[in-house]
Amino acid sequence: MLHSEPVSGQSKLLIICCLAVNAVYGAYLASIGVLLPQLGAAFKLNTAGQGQLMSAGFAGCVVGVLVSGPLSDKAGRRVVVLGCGVIFCAGLTGLGLAHSLTAALLCAPLAGAGSAGMQAASGAFSADLLPRFKAQILNLCQVAFAAGAVIGPLCAAHYINGALAASSWRGVYLTFAAAITVLFVLFAVLRGGASAAHSASTNRSHNASSPATAASPSTLQGLLISPAFLALCTAQLFYAGAEVGYFEWMPTYIRYRAPHAGTLATGCVSLFWFGMTLGRMIMAPLLMRFRPLPLGSLLAICGGAAALATLAADSGRALGTCILLVGLFFGGVYSSILVESGFRFPGALGAAIGGIAAASSCGTSTIPWAVGAVAASPAGWHAGLMLIPISAAISAAVLLALHLHGRNHSLPTRL
């Protein structure tokens, strides 16, 4: 149990702040699908153009996590969290005040870089605070992310459908900026937690007796020549692209299928993330009993199958059930990849999380764009959304192949 390891009051508050960062990031990311039609109307964009705006933000994520992860291992988690918080807040404020597509395209990468970097550094920070429960803490961060993603779209939809609907999408971005400012102040004031160098040294010492982790890379360069790390990044790239491509385009797809299905169209993202939250909560005990790679592979396959079933759903209830199931199955895939990364590369946790997040951003900046581009072509929505189960299947195959490659090694089932 988590309470069996003594933690100072300040450290507990820091862990709560780390979870809050993940929740705000989840709320922001999940709200993009609700906000895209508003941005499209404001800047006169079709689905392909909206996909470009989405991709600009996720392209910023790639840069943010590639820099923040390794930097947090060297300079310290807190410094990186604070720096990324400033960038995130600046990007959100710029988006809320943008009055041209050019301005929005310039601000979206800032919001992406700051948000992803802040999440990656805060995740590693929270794991440092409770190193004996790294797997559970990393999964708990994902639970917080999913919980925020449930609430964010509902609040955004309520805000957009209010009395000031013509301009209220700007207020959503400014509200997120205010929330990040509060967290920035708390991170600046609170004290606690080991330094990044001390944490990395402790991790290496703690795992020195394990053959599987004794040669763990300690830098991003070392990770990039590790076949296992590259395989995990590849799996995450296709999984993240499938996840984001599904929930970001689902409101638009539902409006295409049923123009008057307002409730399901605005609530489908929260329904998806409700399923994700349940899936990640269920993952906590499963990670203590099963190896993460085959578990993640199975979940990716099941989620892809549910996404495929979405295209055949012939009623609102059936469509809602499919959306919930996709979230439920997809919920544990990222956690399984993070936990496997944490075990294999304990001496470079920040760099590993950053690299995995960078791969995630590559997937989320390309696959959702491809879905929108194909949907806007004569091939239509069904062809575009077929990229979701295909991407999920590729992710599952890579995770299973990595598991089979290392099944004869003495790998523990938990951190």
Question: What features would you describe in this structure?
Answer:
The chain is mainly α and 415 residues long. It has a single domain, classed as MFS general substrate transporter like domains (Growth Hormone, Chain: A). Helices cover 80% and strands 0% of the residues. The protein has 16 helices and no strands. The C terminus is likely disordered.
Could you give a quick summary of the protein structure above?
By secondary structure, this protein is mostly helical. It is built from 16 helices and no strands. Helix 1 (9-43) runs antiparallel to helix 6 (168-189).
List descriptors.
415 residues, mainly alpha, Growth Hormone, Chain: A, 0% strand
SSE arrangement:
Elements: H1 9-43, H2 47-75, H3 77-97, H4 101-129, H5 134-160, H6 168-189, H7 196-206, H8 220-224, H9 227-257, H10 262-286, H11 292-310, H12 316-330, H13 333-344, H14 349-376, H15 380-385, H16 387-405
CATH superfamily: MFS general substrate transporter like domains
Given this structure, which CATH class is correct?
Answer: Mainly Alpha
Please state roughly what percent of the residues sit in beta strands, choosing from under 5%, 5-15%, 15-25%, 25-35%, 35-45% or over 45%: under 5%
Q: Give average pLDDT, whole number.
A: 82
Order of helices and strands: HHHHHHHHHHHHHHHH
The number of domains: 1
Count of helical stretches: 16
Class of secondary structure makeup: mainly alpha
* Gross geometry: globular
